[in-house]
Amino acid sequence: MNSKIHQSWQQILDSEFSAAYFKALQSFVDQEYEEHQCFPPEAQIFSAFDHCHWEDTKVVVIGQDPYHGAGQANGLCFSVNDGVTHPPSLVNIFKELQLDLHKQYPISGDLEKWADQGVLLLNATLTVRAHHAGSHQGKGWETFTNAVITKLSQEKNGLVFMLWGGYAKKKVKLIDTEKHHILTSGHPSPLSANRGYWFGNRHFGKTNEILLRQSLTPIDW
């Protein structure tokens, strides 16, 4: 695994890349990609950072694991490549977007457009073995991504953190809630959404209202 990340993040995260845990993680990931099919493609492991640069970050969405089906994961949480069938969670994200902002349901499930506008689409674990959900959890990725969230919290002001579901909500302990805006709801997965914990959260509109109050450009969701 090449730990080359966009230069805007390189200095911020340099101490993580040189830490013992990250070197062990790197060895584990290299071996997994060598011996098994893994996702996302190696060149896209750090796509969330390549598309959303440090200085541009204004919104953070936290996912858990990359999709583990062939051709789905592209390094951005909840996002899939063009032409790929939208997974159920993404379908519900787009349905809420329709309800909230009266936008048309998107044809493409690729969320690069959001990332390029300053939305960090961060999975807690950045890699996974094909067809084995959670297979790369507990190997060091969470330490790395927790450090990312902590540094964002410490060094920035007025970020909007969209925390969807129980796993993401636990990350609030890493965030200075006096400095940042926290939006929480159920997870967009059908299990949660169909019980009434997702639809109607209006997170897309609320985020843009918060950004406008700070004289920042809203996201074209």
TrEMBL record:
Report the active site residues: 65 (proton acceptor)
Segments forming a coiled coil: none
The UniProt entry lists the main location of this chain as cytoplasm
Q: Where in the cell is it found?
A: Cytoplasm
InterPro entries annotated for this entry?
Answer: UDG_fam1 (IPR002043), Ura-DNA_Glyclase_AS (IPR018085), Uracil-DNA_glycosylase-like (IPR005122), Uracil-DNA_glycosylase-like_sf (IPR036895)
Question: Per the UniProt record, which EC number(s) apply here?
Answer: 3.2.2.27
Q: Which UniProt keyword terms apply here? A: Cytoplasm, DNA damage, DNA repair, Glycosidase, Hydrolase
What are the Uracil-DNA glycosylase-like domain coordinates in residue numbering? 50-211
A matching Pfam family? UDG
Q: Which reaction does it catalyse?
A: Hydrolyzes single-stranded DNA or mismatched double-stranded DNA and polynucleotides, releasing free uracil
Record-level Gene Ontology MF annotations: uracil DNA N-glycosylase activity
The yes or no answer to whether the keyword Acetylation is present is no
Q: Give the enzyme class.
A: hydrolase
Q: Which NCBIfam families match?
A: PRK05254.1-1, PRK05254.1-2, PRK05254.1-4, PRK05254.1-5, ung
> Per its database record, what is this protein's job?
Excises uracil residues from the DNA which can arise as a result of misincorporation of dUMP residues by DNA polymerase or due to deamination of cytosine.
The entry sums up its family as follows:
Belongs to the uracil-DNA glycosylase (UDG) superfamily. UNG family.
Q: What is this protein called?
A: Uracil-DNA glycosylase
Which species? Arenibacter antarcticus
The lineage, from the top, is:
Bacteria, Pseudomonadati, Bacteroidota, Flavobacteriia, Flavobacteriales
What is the gene called? ung
